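= Tokenised fold =
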Amino acid sequence: LLIVPLVSVLFTTIYIYNSAEFVELLTSQPIKRNKIWISLFIGLSGSMAIAFFLGAGVPLFIYTEPSLSLIMVSIGMLISLVFVSLAFLSASITRDKAKGIGMSIMLWLYFALLFDALVLFLLFQLSDYPIEKMMIGITATSPIDLARILILLHLDVSAMMGYTGAIFKKFFGSAEGMVIAFFLLTLWVAIPYYISLRIFKRKDL
């Protein structure tokens, strides 16, 4: 949950900047910009998903029960797609390669490390108030935390998370909670990509 997003976001960002001249050439042809952008997205998302499946999915299916393996592989692939989508957003905002890569790394740092620190600070400051249920909503604002909680709940370690773990298990452990969690992760893929597409279509290359 740390390395997979980092590899996805860095590889995608660097690839887009290295392919900038080729993309400019394609835009000069009678091809719609949205087709160019979605083709890039499908190609990079597919390669990241296949790489994750071969690296983590195959061993999981061999050594773990199929239902748990399927859930963990699905979550891992979705996280890869989320950070591919965020990389597209970073690359579409600025033409400067260094700024784009820096922005991608900052996004990864925020979701992987800084977000947890902010949540811990919030929990500490509001420890006298019942904010456990509010934590479900806060968790939805970080794809890595959402994926981490889903994996922990399916590994049956929610008891180690105390009362908050019980709240998470009650919500995310149900079928409706799982559907909502996967829907939220899908939104994390769709929304940054859609914003990047809008920027790319209006961009003067």
